[in-house]
Amino acid sequence: xxxxxxxxxxxxxxxxxxxxxxxxxxxxxxxxxxxxxxxxxxxxxxxxxxxxxxxxxxxxxxxxxxxxxxxxxxxxxxxxxxxxxxxxxxxxxxxxxxxxxxxxxxxxxxxxxxxxxxxxxxxxxxxxxxxxxxxxxxxxxxxxxxxxxxxxxxxxxxxxxxxxxxxxxxxxxxxxxxxxxxxxxxxxxxxxxxxxxxxxxxxxxxxxxxxxxxxxxxxxxxxxxxxxxxxxxxxxxxxxxxxxxxxxxxxxxxxxxxxxxxxxxxxxxxxxxxxxxxxxxxxxxxxxxxxxxxxxxxxxxxxxxxxxxxxxxxxxxxxxxxxxxxxxxxxxxxxxxxxxxxxxxxxxxxxxxxxxxxxxxxxxxxxxxxxxxxxxxxxxxxxxxxxxxxxxxxxxxxxxxxxxxxxxxxxxxxxxxxxxxxxxxxxxxxxxxxxxxxxxxxxxxxxxxxxxxxxxxxxxxxxxxxxxxxxxxxxxxxxxxxxxxxxxxxxxxxxxx
Length: 497
Known about the structure:
This protein is of the alpha/beta class. About 35% of the residues lie in helices and about 20% in strands. The chain is built from 15 helices and 14 strands. A five-stranded mixed sheet has the order 1-2-3-4-5, sandwiched between helices. Helix 9 packs across helix 10, helix 12 (about 380-390) runs parallel beside helix 14 (about 450-465) and helix 14 packs antiparallel against helix 15 (about 490-495). The longest helix is centred in the middle third of the chain and has 24 residues, at about 275-300. The radius of gyration is 23 Å and the shape is globular.
């Protein structure tokens, strides 16, 4: 008997979807021209019907629905309709992200980057608890909104889902949609980045995954980073291999988007791990996979992700202490939907420890290599406020939990040979973590950066002595991170005015 379709589309809905495609609103047209023909590496459909609803844009590969909201969506009745619609989609496995039409006009690059990251995370299966909940990215570009400390809404979803997963959103009633600001950061819990013992043993000498670790150690272009019961092998800022231990058998994944639209064909590889032969097959295929990634990047420039991996390589501790003052510990960190490009440690010399690596400071790092990415969604102001939320949550106890998480990551990387034991990191210092914003190939003195830097200064001033926010400029290909090159927001504003 034929399997019934999951969603039967009524003829009237199909006709409405066709009618909505011509013409698109100006903000919708901007997004469509930027995402069509796999320009972000994923195929999108416009005005796509799903059940009884029509999404502005839809990516089937990642089950991602994108909505561009005009002024009407700010009305109470429409917001209630949007919440009900989003809940219906989430229950059926879709993810919804929303952008204000005004944000598309002011910061199209930021909107596209948010879309690309959402697609990649969904396609790779990297979903933390709550990652399937609807996301709203509202317009906070007005001076009044910035003065009030408002942020774009992100990570809204069903309170019941969060609580069922052991998380607390801080919203009183079940079933009500929550926002980034409404999450109770004092009770929020994140699963720590740590490999389970069987996976760590499999990576170690004599283990069935050890060929992967050897390949990373032998090729300075590769990097292995630990996630929650899984790990990623990175190349050039892209994910070369994901080994996911949250399922049995373990899942092996490569994002085949890199081969779409090109002349190369992806190799046939095992998707489940069963023996050392599977690890050997993947390692032998690394050159083919890398060739596909490089081919894709010739058509889709990498941007800031390339700089992140280059910084990680230049400030690595695999072959001994880093050559400068910072040690990159991790790429792509997320806490309560607050994201940073990297996590690092900064050496802290004392009389008893001249090298400064016994108790280094923890540092959240955000990298910017495009002026347009410094404002609006995921701009400098957003990152400063995210940093504020983390270090002040529960009187600083949540920041201490993140330190403990990375003390375990450091210990596990030392045991695996990904960090040199001579660093002798005993623990992270009790100091408040630092936020370091790194401009790569950007001039901090350009007028367009003054407003976002002032947003950061306002957050820093409000925090007082609690905050440790710094800016640094790097010019590629010199990616060494030195403490003397870091300046305060106050200094940067004074130099720019």
